[in-house]
Amino acid sequence: MFSKILTSSHEIDMARRLVYKIYVEEGGWTPSLDNPSGLKVLKFPDSTPPMIIDRFDPYSTWVGVFDEARAEPVACGRISSRDQYGKFEIQYYDDTISNLEQIDLKLNPNVFVLNRTAILSEYRGTAAWLILLRQGFAYCHEQKHAAFSGTSVEKVQRVHDSIGYPCVEGLSFQYEISGENYAKVYHATYPDDTCRVIENLDTLIDKKIKKDNGEFMTSTLSAKL
Predict the structure, then answer these.
(1) Contact at 8 Å (CB) between 146 and 111?
(2) Fewer CB near the terminus (10 Å): N or C of the chain?
């Protein structure tokens, strides 16, 4: 598997379709009409699969992970900057997080948000997710930007903790669904945190690939015996 920045409209549309597949088809989620992000499902009159779009797309860079055996990305994510009003997407969801003074967003213009992560179910036990995260943090680091994100998914939170992605203590919020778990906010400063996270991801990716290759060789030998 390999990762890259998605540059063509075709590649970006494939990522948006993957987000639809995972969030809507698999997860059963439907964005509300008054969603602060302007999230909506874009459908087509022909057999073209639907995709998720929103008003932050013009301020975003997409990344993808590919398996050599497939033309479409097996995982994708988005790196977003501020909109035309100088705000990040996450700031529209909860008044308590609107200023984000704990992480000095007002004082630091060089910050990206990591969001829209989607991974095909058959690749969730592989290194794809870690490779995707590394591409995202590497892009932030190369652009000399800090990174931050919010997630209410416990599995994602555990992975963030394992790679040393610092959690902002005492800062949480809810997305549009009433009663859902509160999302934790993570913030990696540039260059110290971003560099450390990348190093941790390199270690975990190497271990995961070696483990997967070892299991593959064992199963292959067993099949031959």
Answers:
(1) yes
(2) C
Crossing angle of helices 192-224 and 128-142, rounded to 10°: 160
Buried b (16+ CB within 10 A) or exposed e, 129-148: bbbbbbbbbbbbbeeebbbb
pLDDT of 153 > 90? The answer is: no
Ordered alpha helix ranges (H), the chain: 9-20, 128-142, 154-162, 192-224
Structure tokens at 36: 């602060």
Measured CA to CA, the distance from residue 46 to residue 202 in angstroms comes to: 42
Domains of the chain: 2-207 (3.40.630.30)
225 vs 223: CA distance, rounded Å: 5
User: Strand 51-53 vs strand 167-173: parallel, antiparallel, or unpaired?
Assistant: unpaired
Can you give the pTM of this predicted structure?
0.88
Farthest CA pair distance, the chain: 65
What is the DSSP-derived secondary structure letter of residue 22?
I
Query: Which tens digit of pLDDT belongs to each residue from 169-214?
Result: 877 777 765 556 788 889 999 999 999 999 999 999 999 999 888 7
Q: Which residue has the tokens 């988005």?
A: 78
Q: Cβ(49)–Cβ(144) under 8 Å?
A: no
Phi, psi of 5 (to 5 degrees): -75, 135
Q: What is the mean pLDDT of the chain?
A: 86
| Digit-coded pLDDT (tens) for 92-128 | 876 555 555 555 565 567 889 999 999 999 999 899 9
User: What's the rounded Cα separation, in Å, for the pair 172 and 210?
Assistant: 36
